[in-house]
């Protein structure tokens, strides 16, 4: 596909040793002295289980799965950080980490082509599926993992129950039409909330809920835009009326937006959602508030943040996964959009 860098696991393979994926980097060099994080293991498992033709995909998936198995502390609880000494830190368990673990396990159990990964991921998903959280993003990640399971195993009871509970736990739009976001401020991975609401509604056959999720995503995409590009909420978030652009913008925002718009395109067939995926990918290649690329073309690592005069040149795990996953999503959406455009108008109309 022209226009998008080919998604590569090259830098993620560099960040991943026999223990897990190293959370931080100094420039492109892994900071093993800062240890490993369960959040990253869950997301790495999902990314590797989707990019299965990459040479390192199977190794990365197996390393991530072993790390999650080691981190699992019973039921829906996962330990958060492993130090460079091989000992778990005293950080309390994180709901977000547990949600991301279930997300990766669900994707791997349903999509990974390697028998040992599929079987191990399903076994661990079943052991942790009792997880529930009052934190919307943790619930959203877990729900996306459960929806992935249902796509492959429609009768899976634990995934059904998690999805049904997520329908009640995930927040809907606020009553204020000027600020319908269900929180006082945009914070992080914002596209995740409408994506999860859409995925859950679709899984439950709730068309009205799906339309509500699409409306919220449409508002978010407009709120996070400036002129023809995305101008994402920075690390500190953004509230009503606050000026754009603001920094330090994080790659996870583009990733969450790309995934949400791709799911909207799959659900509706509306090509404008595929175009929005392309805008999220364009953020990485320089169509952003500073006009700079957010990845290193020599290493295929993603830069850690967009700053007022350039980039944070460190290439950590989350940023690199965001870059790789968004490029993969953009290419898939571009293919789907091209196929849709090639269909006769009557066939396109029937999709709506």
pLDDT averaged over residues? 95
Detail the poorly predicted runs: 348-352
**Structural class of the helices, strands and pairings?**
mainly alpha
Number of helices: 13
**Strand arrangement across the biggest beta sheet:** 1-2
What share of residues are in beta strands? 5-15%
Helix-strand string: HEEEHHEHHHHHHEEHHEEEEHH
Distance between the termini: 27 Å
Shape: globular
Give the helix level as a range of percent: 40-55%
Radius of gyration: 19 Å
Question: Strand tally, please?
Answer: 10
Biggest β-sheet description: 2 strands, antiparallel
How would you describe the overall organization of this protein?
54% of the residues lie in helices and 6% in strands. It contains 13 helices and 10 strands. It has helices at residues 10-15, 38-50, 57-71, 95-111, 115-128, 136-152, 157-169, 192-204, 207-223, 251-268, 271-284, 317-342, 345-351, and strands spanning 25-26, 29-30, 36-37, 81-82, 225-226, 229-230, 295-296, 301-302, 305-307, 310-312. Strands 1-2 form a two-stranded antiparallel sheet. It has a two-stranded antiparallel ribbon with strand order 3-4. The longest helix is centred in the last third of the chain and has 26 residues, at 317-342. Mean pLDDT is 95; it is low at 348-352.
Task: Looking at this protein, list some descriptive labels.
two-stranded antiparallel sheet, 352 residues, disordered C terminus, globular, 10 strands, mainly alpha
């Amino acid at each position: 596909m022209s226009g998008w860098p080919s998604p590569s696991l090259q830098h993620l393979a560099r960040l991943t040793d026999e223990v897990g994926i190293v959370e931080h980097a100094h420039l492109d060099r892994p900071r093993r002295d800062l240890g490993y994080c369960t959040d990253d293991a869950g997301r790495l498992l999902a990314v590797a289980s989707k990019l299965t033709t990459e040479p390192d995909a199977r190794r990365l998936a197996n390393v991530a799965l072993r790390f999650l198995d080691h981190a699992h502390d019973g039921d829906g609880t996962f330990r958060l950080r492993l130090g460079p000494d091989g000992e778990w830190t005293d950080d309390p368990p994180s709901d977000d980490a547990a949600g991301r673990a279930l997300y990766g396990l669900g994707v791997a159990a349903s999509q990974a082509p390697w028998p040992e990964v599929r079987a191990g991921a399903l076994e661990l998903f079943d052991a942790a599926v009792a997880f529930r959280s009052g934190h919307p993003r943790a619930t959203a990640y877990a729900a996306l993992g459960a929806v992935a399971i249902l796509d492959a195993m429609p009768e899976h009871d634990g995934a059904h129950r998690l999805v049904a509970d997520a329908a009640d736990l995930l927040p809907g739009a606020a009553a204020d039409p000027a600020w319908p976001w269900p929180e006082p401020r945009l914070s992080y991975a914002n596209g995740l909330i409408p994506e999860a609401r859409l995925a859950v509604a679709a899984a439950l056959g709730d068309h009205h809920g799906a339309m509500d999720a699409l409306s919220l995503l449409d508002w978010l995409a407009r709120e996070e835009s400036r002129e023809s590009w995305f101008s994402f909420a920075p690390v500190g978030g953004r509230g009503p009326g606050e000026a754009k652009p603001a920094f330090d913008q994080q790659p996870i925002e583009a990733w969450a937006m790309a995934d949400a718009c791709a799911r909207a395109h799959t659900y509706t067939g509306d090509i404008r959602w595929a175009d929005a995926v392309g805008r999220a990918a364009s953020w990485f290649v320089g169509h952003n508030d500073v006009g700079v690329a957010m990845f290193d073309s020599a290493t295929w690592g993603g830069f850690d943040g967009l700053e007022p005069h350039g980039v944070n040149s460190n290439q950590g795990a989350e940023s690199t996964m965001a870059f790789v996953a968004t490029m993969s999503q953009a290419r898939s959406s571009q293919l789907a959009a091209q196929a849709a455009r090639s269909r006769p108008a009557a066939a396109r109309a029937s999709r709506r």
